[in-house]
Write a structure and sequence with these properties.
GO molecular function: lipid binding
Radius of gyration: 19 Å
Number of domains: 2
Distance between the termini: 20 Å
InterPro entries: DegV, DegV_C, DegV_domain_contain
Order of helices and strands: EHEEEHEHEHEHHEHHEEHEHEEHE
Number of strands: 14
Keywords: Lipid-binding
Organism: Anaerosphaera multitolerans
Protein name: DegV family protein
CATH architecture of the largest domain: 3-Layer(aba) Sandwich
CATH class of the largest domain: Alpha Beta
Largest sheet: 7 strands, mixed
Strand content: 15-25%
Length: 293
């Protein structure tokens, strides 16, 4: 029986991928003016971006415990499952998922179940989930999937930039001075996930230089590409905004390029103007290749 893969909406995987690999998605809560919305259900990313441009502020909240319990029990009724969480440095959801699994295990002691901290976000988290779901669909068993996920979590990389540091400032990730200087001098922060949190890695001036620097970082990190290797570029409101970055990737990398659109959970903290990518910095071990072809 196939192992069920469950993730949360912070993975930013599109509907067609979720349906293709039969991934269950738990929706992170996004709040605006005291109203709670379920990411991707009650609030679409296009609506979020439109309201952000009008000056509205959004925050995020944890997935309700009831949602974890309901999803996990449904999965346990049918078989084994693995839940993959948005980085524990960004949300408390991972801790809550552990509590939910402890409760479900009491009722289904013969089922295998585990929660994995992806230690990543958006397209990095999405790529981890994509590979795990592909392997599950192609017959990998529970222990093989846990081992694969251990490798993926340790080797997933991200690099992003945003055009407006206002949203990073509101979230406490850059100082007031950095925000002001960034606007004045057209500075672009390069952001990665370090110690499970979104961190400003370095600064670049203008989109062109930021895109070139991100390409340099990605090329240095990637060891070797195979036919099943993917890189997930990320865009916000419009894919056309990152076409120069996509062109650089296409011209310099021999890899499958699958652009993904930013969702509400991470978009609430970065704003609508984002470019970047999630990728692996090591080749997936050969023993997993049969599940990824």
């Amino acid at each position: 029986m196939k192992v069920k893969i469950i993730a949360d909406s912070g993975c930013d995987l599109p509907k067609e991928v979720v349906e293709k690999f039969d991934i269950d998605i738990l929706n992170i809560i996004v709040t605006n003016k005291g109203i709670e919305y379920r990411d991707g259900l009650d609030l679409k990313n296009t609506e979020l971006f439109k309201k952000q441009r009008l000056g509205e502020d959004f925050k995020t909240a944890q997935i309700p415990m009831y949602d974890y319990l309901t999803s996990f029990e449904k999965a346990a009724e049918e078989g084994d499952f693995i839940y993959i969480s948005l980085s524990s440095g960004i949300t408390g959801g991972y801790s809550n998922s552990l509590l939910a699994i402890e409760s479900i295990k009491e009722k289904y002691p013969n089922r295998e179940m585990v929660s994995i901290d992806s230690q990543s976000a958006s397209v990095g988290f999405g790529l981890v989930t994509y590979y795990a779901a592909m392997a599950a669909k192609n017959g990998a068993d529970f222990n093989e999937l846990v081992e694969l996920l251990d490798f993926l979590v340790k080797n997933i990389k991200h690099i992003f930039t945003v055009s407006d540091m206002e949203y990073l400032y509101r979230g406490g990730r850059v100082s007031r001075t950095a925000r002001s200087v960034g606007k004045l001098l057209n500075i672009r922060p390069l952001i990665d996930v370090t110690d499970k949190k979104l961190q400003v890695k370095e600064l670049s001036r203008g989109n062109h230089k930021a895109y070139k620097r991100m390409l340099e970082i990605i090329k240095t990190s990637i060891e070797k590409s195979r036919s099943y290797d993917y890189i997930f570029p990320i865009y916000g409101e419009e894919i056309t905004a990152i076409e120069p970055f996509l062109k650089l990737l296409e011209e310099n990398l021999v890899i499958n390029i699958m652009p993904q659109q930013l969702g509400c959970a991470i978009g609430a903290h970065t704003g609508p103007d984002i470019a970047g990518a999630g990728y692996l910095d090591k080749e997936i071990p050969e023993k997993f290749h049969k599940y990824l072809e």
